[in-house]
Amino acid sequence: MLAMFWLVIAVIALGAGGLVWYGAKRWQAREAAQEDRMAAFLAAAKGNGKPADPAPAEPVAAPASNAALAPSAGLAQQKLLFEAAHKAGEAGEPALAIQLYARLLARFPASGFADQARARVEAEKKKLAKA
């Protein structure tokens, strides 16, 4: 009976260890994929490379029934531009960050991110002046 108890404990411990190992492996794969996407985005933004996924030749117009989805799509683009600019600034690329903030402000001048973007542009300009 005691041997059965220890066998059950060993199986549970091995199962838990396997789950932790599997989770860690998936997390590392996600982190690597995220780094690859960010590197491809920054390379494409700098003009040093081509984007990984080419853009469609013509934009697809949204159907009239999906008119309510348009603001959320714009918000997603705004957030993507803002986060990319922020990450460029953190990565020590103030010129690229300023360009991305400027693109955000040019496309979405009345954005909720506009005030933050303007403040970040001033901070990035100060970084450039120091360098």
Question: What oligomeric state do these chains adopt?
Answer: single chain
Q: What is the helix fraction of residues, given as a range?
A: over 70%
H/E order of the elements?
A: HHHH
Report the major sheet: none
Radius of gyration: 23 Å
Q: How many domains would you count in the coordinates?
A: 2
Question: Can you walk me through this structure?
Answer:
By secondary structure, the chain is mostly helical. It has 2 domains: 1-50; 75-131, no CATH class. It is 74% helix and 0% strand. The protein has 4 helices and no strands. Helix 2 runs antiparallel to helix 3 (94-107) and helix 3 runs antiparallel to helix 4. The longest helix has 45 residues, at 2-46.
Give the gist of this structure.
The chain is mostly helical and 131 residues long. The protein is built from four helices and no strands. It has two domains: 1-50; 75-131, no CATH class.
What attributes characterize this protein structure?
single chain, about 130 residues, mainly alpha, 2 domains, 4 helices, about 75% helix
Q: What secondary-structure arrangement, pairings included, does this model have?
A:
Layout: H1 2-46, H2 70-90, H3 94-107, H4 114-130
Helix pairs in contact: 2-3, 3-4
